[in-house]
């Protein structure tokens, strides 16, 4: 059992002895019943033949599916966005500044955090600057992440919290920080969040996940995006009350002690957002050829290949899954070179057994796809990225040109090659929205690059369990599987929901056999 997840066979005291969900539509079959006990599915069949149970839930014909797994989430930042300043919908610079001013008036004292601003459609033709912020936040530290969260604008008071930040790569006098300066500012900003702010944010994320029918989250923690304290608190919160499970990842190189926390907290893997490059929006994803709209720039690799080899070697030798954030083709290629070096050294079976995973993997050509297949790797992908930034006039096309943009997020190539896929949101980069993710994976903005509907649904459910090495051989809705189920506000079959691109609300989430009341 990979850790961070509460094992289904060690239920908490709240788990009822058994539960029968009856008169439900399972997949495309109405009139079914599902019996669960000990946190697992024990029986599926016709409702008329169902065994008795201590607790019965009448589905009234509603669709029952495995609960979703969101395989890439930042719980605290997502919760801070849910409870805090969300600039995603601001359509001008003036509108964004007005929202910041309003937050200053209404938010409790302390650091002001916000996320989601995107200047690409703003009439002013520029993004937020430090001067814009200082004018409304005064002497309060403020950190406002751009929509891709790989750059941010900060106030002067936040800069003052980080000695030397003005000399780091990526620093800019206008307060729009990238690269190392951005990482330092983000660390200071989240370091300034109080334990109370953090706990409220994490609880808000778990409640929102439950509301959406998400039974498990993969939390992508790390020293640059959160902290060990943050991760530890989230795992405790998820364990101590009924609600979505959390599988934790910690993105720090083994040579810097990253594996120690994996062992201490029983995490699912050593990596996740172990940043091997940045993102397209901020021109920091590492490319093999320059950006179209910034010809002098091809992004940057953050590590030497030898460092990645050492990480994969240490993880493989320890039987621990490694994971990497890699977006541009140069970063994807570098990580795969490192995995290949360890395949040569420790052998294919040892590497395949770890199921090393790549996050985002947005530029993967035929060679990369073939290497991922051969080495038994997992592609953790975010279909909403394509929905948001793909297409002939989207941000990918602006940054990369039409040809390279059309090849981004090659879901069909990965699936057809037999590479295991897990879908995620990267919330708060895009909101948790599991049905939206499934539909976006099918309706890829590039013709022919999307997934078949049932494959997309499988990648959004079973794929997440496979990605942490905890899937059951018979699949997610079969006797023996963890009883993580979602009952939906529709009596349509799963085929119809997928065909008609419906997004039914979740009527009831069940995690490890326990009905999760509204949190
Ligand atoms: Zn992430």
UniProtKB/TrEMBL annotation:
Q: Which Pfam families match?
A: Amidohydro_3 (PF07969)
Q: Which SUPFAM superfamilies does the protein's record reference?
A: Composite domain of metallo-dependent hydrolases, Metallo-dependent hydrolases
InterPro entries (alphabetical): Amidohydro_3, Metal-dep_hydrolase_composite, Metal_Hydrolase
Q: What residue stretches are annotated with the Amidohydrolase domain?
A: 58-516
Task: Name the domain of life this protein comes from.
Answer: Bacteria
Annotated GO MF terms: hydrolase activity, acting on carbon-nitrogen (but not peptide) bonds
What is this protein identified as? Answer: Amidohydrolase 3 domain-containing protein
What residue stretch is flagged as signal peptide?
A: none
**Matching Gene3D superfamilies:** 3.10.310.70, Metal-dependent hydrolases, Urease, subunit C, domain 1
């Amino acid at each position: 059992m990979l850790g961070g997840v509460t094992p289904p066979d060690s239920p908490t005291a709240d788990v009822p002895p058994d539960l029968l969900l009856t008169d439900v539509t399972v997949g495309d079959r109405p009139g079914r019943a599902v019996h669960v006990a000990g946190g697992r599915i024990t029986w599926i069949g016709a409702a008329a033949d169902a065994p008795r149970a201590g607790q019965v839930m009448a589905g009234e014909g509603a669709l029952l599916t495995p609960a979703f797994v969101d395989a890439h989430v930042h719980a605290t930042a997502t919760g801070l966005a849910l409870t805090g300043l969300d600039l995603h919908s601001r359509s001008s610079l003036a509108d964004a500044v007005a929202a910041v001013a309003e937050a200053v008036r209404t938010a409790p004292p302390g650091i002001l955090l916000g996320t989601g601003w995107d200047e690409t459609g703003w009439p002013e033709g520029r993004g937020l600057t430090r001067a814009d912020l200082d004018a409304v936040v005064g002497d309060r530290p403020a950190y406002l992440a751009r929509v891709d969260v790989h750059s941010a604008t900060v106030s002067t008071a936040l800069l003052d919290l980080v000695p030397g930040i003005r000399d780091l790569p990526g620093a800019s006098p206008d307060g729009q920080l990238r690269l190392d300066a951005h990482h330092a500012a983000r660390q200071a900003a989240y370091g300034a969040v109080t334990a109370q702010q953090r706990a409220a944010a994490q609880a808000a994320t778990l409640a929102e996940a439950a509301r959406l029918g998400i039974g498990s989250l993969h939390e992508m923690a790390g020293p640059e995006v959160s902290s060990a304290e943050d991760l530890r608190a989230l795992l405790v919160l998820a364990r101590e009350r009924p609600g979505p499970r959390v599988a934790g990842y910690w993105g720090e190189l083994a040579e810097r002690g990253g594996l120690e926390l994996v062992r201490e907290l029983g995490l699912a893997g050593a990596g996740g957002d172990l940043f091997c490059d940045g993102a397209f929006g901020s021109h920091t994803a590492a490319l093999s050829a320059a950006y179209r709209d910034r010809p002098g720039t091809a992004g940057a690799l953050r590590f030497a290949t030898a460092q990645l080899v050492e990480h994969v070697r240490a993880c493989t030798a320890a039987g621990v899954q490694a994971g990497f954030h890699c977006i541009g083709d140069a970063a994807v290629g570098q990580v795969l070179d490192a995995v290949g070096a360890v395949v040569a050294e420790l052998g294919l079976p040892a590497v395949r057994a770890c199921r090393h995973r790549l996050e985002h993997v947005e530029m993967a050509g035929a060679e990369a796809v073939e290497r991922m297949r051969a080495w038994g790797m997992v592609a953790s992908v975010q279909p909403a990225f394509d929905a948001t930034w793909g297409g002939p006039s989207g941000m990918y096309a602006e940054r990369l040109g039409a040809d390279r943009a059309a090849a981004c997020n090659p879901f069909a190539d990965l699936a057809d090659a037999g590479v295991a896929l897990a879908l995620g949101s990267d919330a708060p980069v895009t909101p948790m929205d599991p049905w939206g993710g499934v539909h976006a994976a099918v309706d890829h903005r590039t013709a022919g690059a999307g997934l078949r509907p049932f494959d997309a649904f499988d990648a959004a459910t079973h794929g997440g369990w496979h990605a942490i090495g905890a899937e059951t051989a018979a699949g997610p809705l079969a006797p023996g599987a963890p009883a993580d189920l979602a009952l939906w506000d529709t009596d349509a079959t799963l085929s119809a929901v997928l065909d008609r691109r419906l997004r039914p609300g979740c009527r009831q989430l069940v995690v490890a056999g326990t009905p999760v009341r509204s949190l």
